[in-house]
């Protein structure tokens, strides 16, 4: 069986994706918030008319919590719109990749531990040019996908492995790989994985947004993301990042550029 390499360069960026998602979510969200407001008002009227205060109070609490949740979604949508307009407020800075990967591993641990052993292989690498929160989101997405490619079965844990690897790449590059021994992907699936909303998972399990967001994030950092897979054997996702600029040499070798007659 032949592994296939997919280079995701022509595909949707977080920009177009963000705009689409924001539009789709904004309308239903707006009427949810209006309805919640009306429900709150209705409850106040009921209370004023002498309705039993205990059930009213507990409904008010539910409405408050639901409103908070809806407002949180509104914030996320706003962020997506910001990204869509290219107004990134989180400026790239030197980030320790190992820390991001470790944090993502910790966040994914609950899902991974029922399905596979998590093995880490971290070589020393320079810092990369990135936004730490976004980078962590990329690795979390890759780890969760890897876990979801492995059946949740008591015997899985002994049979399957998810491997997170950090190693130096070509000069000026850092490579992070997430490998799994899960179901793998056919060439047809592999060719579409970075498309927004492409998913092979059940409704409610997958949105098909994870990898297109990963792709957009990595590209915005000047990096790249590739996938290879063999059906029935597993998949490898490889993220290549730019290492952060090194310290400026305090003693630039002026003599190298000085005219020959100057010395
Ligand atoms: P979602 O996880 O919501 O389906 P993603 O964009 O993260 O969306 O992934 C898109 C699709 O790519 C998945 O539905 C699955 O078919 C495939 N995929 C991604 N990662 C893996 C993996 N590690 N192993 C097998 N298939 C994968
Ligand atoms: Mg996913």
Automatic annotation (TrEMBL):
Location of the Histidine kinase domain: 20-245
Superkingdom of source: Bacteria
Listed name of the protein: histidine kinase
Lineage start: Bacteria, Pseudomonadati, Myxococcota, Myxococcia, Myxococcales
């Amino acid at each position: 069986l032949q592994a296939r390499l997919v280079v995701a360069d022509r595909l949707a960026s977080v920009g177009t994706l963000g705009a689409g998602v924001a539009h789709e979510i904004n309308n239903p969200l707006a009427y949810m918030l209006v309805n919640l407001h009306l429900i709150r008002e209705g409850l106040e009227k009921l209370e004023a008319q002498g309705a039993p205060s205990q059930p009213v109070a507990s409904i008010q609490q539910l409405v408050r919590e639901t409103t908070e949740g809806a407002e949180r979604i509104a914030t996320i949508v706003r962020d997506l719109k910001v990204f869509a307009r290219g107004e990134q407020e989180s400026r790239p800075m030197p980030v320790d990749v190992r820390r991001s990967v470790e944090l993502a591993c910790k966040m994914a641990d609950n899902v991974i531990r029922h399905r596979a052993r998590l093995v880490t292989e971290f070589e020393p690498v320079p810092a990369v040019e990135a936004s730490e929160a976004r980078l962590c989101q990329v690795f979390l997405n890759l780890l969760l996908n890897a876990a979801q490619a492995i059946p949740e079965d008591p015997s899985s844990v002994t049979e399957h492995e998810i491997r997170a690897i950090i190693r130096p790449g070509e000069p000026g590059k850092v490579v992070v790989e997430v490998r799994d021994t899960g179901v793998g992907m056919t060439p047809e699936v592999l060719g579409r994985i970075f498309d927004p909303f492409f998913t092979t998972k059940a409704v409610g399990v997958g949105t098909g947004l994870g990898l297109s967001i990963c792709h957009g994030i990595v590209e915005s950092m000047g990096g790249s993301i590739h996938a290879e897979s063999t059906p029935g054997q597993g998949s490898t996702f490889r993220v290549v990042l730019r290492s952060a600029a090194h310290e400026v040499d305090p003693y630039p070798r002026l003599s190298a550029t000085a005219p020959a007659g100057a010395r």
